[in-house]
Amino acid sequence: MRITIIEDDDRVARALVTVLTQSGFEVNRMATAAEAVRAEPSDVVLVDLGLPDGDGLDLIRRLRDRPETAVIAVTARSEEHERVRGLRAGADDYIVKPFGIPELLARIEAVLRRTRAHRALRPEDEPLVLGPMRIVVGTREVTVGGAGVTLTRKEFELLLLLARRSPNVVSREAILDQVWGATWEASSRTLDTHIAAVRHKLGPQVPIRTVHGVGYRLAP
Fold first, then answer.
1. Is-contact 86 61, C-beta < 8 A?
2. Is 218 exposed, middle or buried (0-12, 13-18, 19+ CB in 10 A)?
3. Which residues does the UniProt record annotate as the domain OmpR/PhoB-type (predicted)?
4. Cα distances (angstroms) measured from residue 104 to each of 27, 41, 73, 98, 184
């Protein structure tokens, strides 16, 4: 299981990395929200709410776009209204500093149980089939004509958006907003680069059509 720690306090982060690694988890530590947004998905993300480059609540809202990831808010804010804000922002659980390691491990185990149950029931595990292409959202697997296609996280999200809207056109603005987020400084050049990469990986069997002046549509 992979856990990502988003914590700017080096002392706290080192302690968490040590304990969680000893508990058998694969651990990745980041210090800013910007790093976290670009990171590969994890099974669990521990988010400190007082990050140097933004409110941790905003990051939690962004992470909610990753249904396979459980989010635990880790903070010194103990007031009830702060806990409520964290949960309403999308955190699966909330733990207040200082906390004991047994409590943290128990909370991680609890959110993992809920996430596994959700994965077992959710419709995303049903494959999305368009022509020769098959997408399994829950495992992020893509095949074309039975052959596996390896995509980055953003490439997968871009393809999934186009596939779910197929055969309709998706505007460039909608893609930038939904894949990179309204607050993310993604340029048109970024989108063009990702479209070109996905086209190359899918090949001619699954064409992504350009609708000039509007956007793109997937037309397998």
1. no
2. buried
3. 125-220
4. 14, 20, 11, 11, 31
Q: Tell me: the pLDDT tens digits for 160-184?
A: 999 988 888 888 888 887 787 644 4
Give the tens place of pLDDT for each residue, 92-140.
899 999 999 999 999 998 888 877 655 554 555 678 899 999 999 888 8
Structure tokens belonging to residue 43: 């099974």
What does pTM read for this prediction? Answer: 0.56
**Domains of the chain by start residue, with CATH:** 2-121 (3.40.50.2300), 125-218 (1.10.10.10)
Write out the two tokens for 55: 């409110």
Six token digits for residue 22:
């000893």
- Per-residue exposure over 68-101, b if at least 16 CB sit within 10 Å of its own CB, e if not: bbbbbbbbebeeeebbebbeebbbbbbbeeeeee
Tokens of 184: 């993310």
Q: What is the DSSP letter of 205?
A: T
